[in-house]
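User: I'll paste a sequence; please echo it back and then give the predicted structure.

Assistant: Echoing your sequence first, then the prediction.
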Amino acid sequence: MTTDLSQKGVAFNPKDRVTFDQLPEQIRKHYQGLPTSDLSGPIGLQETQAYLMLPLKPGEEGFGRVNVWEKTTVMGMSVGQEVGVECGHYKSRGKVVEVTPLNVTVQLESTGLLRFDNSGKGYYTSETYDCPGPWVLAHGDWVLILDALTC
């Protein structure tokens, strides 16, 4: 199996190389417990994309594995995607149930629906001491978009 990474929007550039410790914490947490030797391959970081070259798992054939991460944007969200929302010190999780050119609607785990404009700002404002403004969609999450063999 050959994986053409350029078709998936992955551009390997030597000037994007970083160490594992320079990756965002959300990505580093995903690899907790892996031996340090598994994380010694090329690692790249751009503003909205990161990639890691990893060794093969037992029984796999090829040159190695590649993991590609992408930073989500509001309009890049899709129905069914899990997201976080926050207002002041309150935080909640939910799933995207609708995406239009103008807004994103999220079904919260704890309550009902919240709608956000394409900047991630909620239309509903509670304006309390604890929640001093609109709910905000946490749209800066890093999402693993590719885990593939390289041949």
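The first strand starts at residue 43 and ends at 45. Helices lie at 25-30.
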